[in-house]
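Lab manual, section 2.4: Encoding a predicted structure.

Procedure: take the sequence of the chain (338 residues), apply the prediction step described in section 2.3, and record the output as structure tokens. A sample record is shown.
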Amino acid sequence: MREGIVFAGTIAVDEIKKLEKYPNRSELTTIRSISRSSGGAVSNCAITTAKIDSTLPIEVVALIGDDDKGHFLKERLGNYQNIDLSHVKVIGDTPFTDVIQDETDHTRTFFTYRGNSSLFDEDTIKFEKLNAKFLHIGYILLLDSLDQEDSEYGTKMAKVLKQAQDNGLKTSIDIVSENSNRYEKLVPPSLKYTDYCIINEIEAGKSVGIPLREFSGDLITSNIQKVLFRLKEFGVKEWVIIHTPEGSFGYDGTSFYSIPSLLIDRELIKGTVGAGDAYVAGVLYGAIKNLSLPDSMKVGTASAASSLFAEDSTSGVKSYEELIAMYGKFPKRERIEF
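Recorded output:
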């Protein structure tokens, strides 16, 4: 009987640099602090899930290098007894991301080195060796080999997701946020073989060609339902969820849900890196435990909020019981109607 979850795809080391203020081009700024943490969908989601529930079986499928960053990732993931690293392969250079965080507004800018991520291809995951019930894989647009065209399925990523479903796994995808026009070509093929699509408003809007942000930065609430419906129409079988700083919005094919985000005092926020992955991990944990869509969104909301309490991606995350208490305790933003 399958149980637990496998996280596959992008893994990296985050080199976090907090700046006094992000500079304009050719200007100088001051780095206030430097730290290192595990990063990428695989390590962020695996560690977050392990902290939410230390008994849930977790498997990791990723490529790391025989280098300082690879050793760092293996040590970090190895601190959790319920994370199985037997599917990790050592090859090439470990990817890393310079996370540049502006102390004035807590915004983040990412400079990434892809390293061996281009080597993660359609044959990397050995489904016959997995025990998990759920597969979460990311990121579309960042795994070059899986973004390649496939004559039957549209992309190699879509082919892998179909193989996962054929092997009895529920599938979940994530996308990287980038400034490009690749979304409408590379994302829809995978949605046909996705059970849970949990992405942010930029990724969601670009994937279907309907914007969710004004140039001013305001959320276009009138488009939320259209985007959710369109993503589901591409073939997502269970849940479509869009998460934003203002709140998250879900659709299960029957009902739409709006869950407000938590109001966190500014002085409590140490960093925002990894908040999206923390949200995804919380929602997937709810799905694994057969919670309803809105209740799973609440777990994701609290998980993302708790990640803000630390500079890195995962140190602030709490256990499931603590997250439920946190969601009930903290004040919420005003619920967004759409």
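Check your result against the sample. The first strand starts at residue 5 and ends at 9.
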